[in-house]
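Many introductory courses stop at the sequence. We go one step further.
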Amino acid sequence: MKNKLLIIILCLFATSCHHREIFYYGAPTQLPGVIKDMKTPGFWISKIQYPDKILLNENEIKDLNLSIIEKSEALKDIGKFDTTIKNDDIKNKIIELFDYSKNEDLYIVTGENSKKITAKYYKNILKNMDTGNISDKVFVKFGIINHYSNQRYIPTNDQLNDIPGELFFDQIQISGLDVGTPAAVLHESLDKNWFFICSPIATFGWIEKKYINLCNKKEMDSYINPENFIISVEPKTEIFLNKERTNYYDYVKMGTKLPYKVIDNSDIIEILLPSSDENSNFKIISGFVQKNRINFGYIPYTQRNIIEQAFKLLNTPYGWGDMFGEQDCSRFICEIFASFGIILPRNSGDQAKTGNICGEFNEETPVNEKLNVIKEKVLPGVTLLRRNGHIMLYLGLCNDKPYIIHDTWAYSKKLGFKEETILINKVVVTDLFLLGENTKSGSPIEKINVITNILLPD
C-alpha cells in the first residue's frame, strides 16, 4: 500500500512539472489575398515611377539619424557614453529590469518540460546580480561583441515563458547582438559569468561575459568608426577564420557593419574581428566573408533597394527578441534600414515615432480615413505601418488594396464557433484586410495607429 501511494505521489509530482508543447494550426503556403508574383520584389518595384531615385544622400541620412537619436530614449550612442557613472544609476537600472522580469506566474522551459518559478529562484538571481558590490563611482569599461549573443533582462539563460508548454516567447529576452556591436560595460555578476551592459539599440541588459572583448574607448571608437567598412546585405553572412572557408566562426545579420582589411580581385574579403590575447588584452584578428554577401559601404537609399533588401528576408523564421538567432517584426525593420546606414530603435513603438509621421489614429478612426492617408501620403518601401505590438513595411497597392511585408508570428481566424491561432512564424507578404478579419484581434487595417515615412521630418 505504501509503495502504491508513493507511486501515485511521484506521478502527480511529475505531471505538475511536465506540460505538453502547445500546437497551433498552420497557415496555408498561399496566404489569403496573395498571388505568386506578389512574393517577388520586382512585382512591387514595377509599380513605382522612379524606383532608383535617391531618397536621402549620405549627409541627409546622418541628419535623420541625429533626429532619431535625439527623440528616442531607446537608442544609445556608445561612442558618447559617459566614462564614469553613479552607483545609484546602475543599481536602479538593474533593479528596474529585475522587477520587470519578476513574475512568479512564469515557467522555466526545458525541452517539453515547464516548471513554475519560485520565490527562491528570484532570490538566487538577485544575489548573483551583486548590486551591493557596485562602487560609489563606477568607471565605465568598453567592449565589442565577438559572437552573436543574447541580451537579457536578468543574468540567466533560462527560458521563462508565461504559458506552460509555450516555446516561442521568452519573457526575459531583450535582443540579439551581432559581432562587432559596441557596448558600455557597467557591472559584473557575482559568479563572474555575466556583464551588465548598455548596447546601442537594446540599451541596458545582461550579456554572457565570454561574448564580449574588453577594450579602451579609443580602441572601440577606432573599430566602430573605420574608414573602410562592409555591410552584410544578406539575412546571414557567414564568417570564417580562413580564406578557404573551412573554419567556420559565426554569422552576422543583414545591416551589420564590420571593418575590412584590403580589397583584391578575390571573391573572399578579409574583415577584422574583435578578440583578445592570452592576457585578455584587446586585439584584432582576421575573418573572411564572401564578396557576394556584402556591400562596400552603405547601399544607396532608393525604393528599389529597400524592397529588394526586405524580400531577401522573405520566408525567414520569426524569432521573438531575436530568439533562435532569427528576428521579430521590429528587428526585421531594423535590419533592412541598417543596410542604408539608418539607425532605428529596436522596438516597434519607438520605430513608429521616427522619421516623418503622416498619420496617427485611434480605435474609432474609420478604415477609409486610414486608406486615404495610405493612398495620398505614403511611399512603397519607405513607409512603416504600426499597430500595437507589431510593425509592417508598406509595399504598394494592387487592385486598390494596400499590401505589406512583415515578420509575423500568427493571426486569428474563426473556425466554427471558436477563434483559433493560425501560425505563420516567418516573413510574409499580406494585404491589410484579410488576416484577422472579423476576429477580436482584428485585421491590420482596423488596428493601425501610426503611419510614418522613414525620411527627414518636415
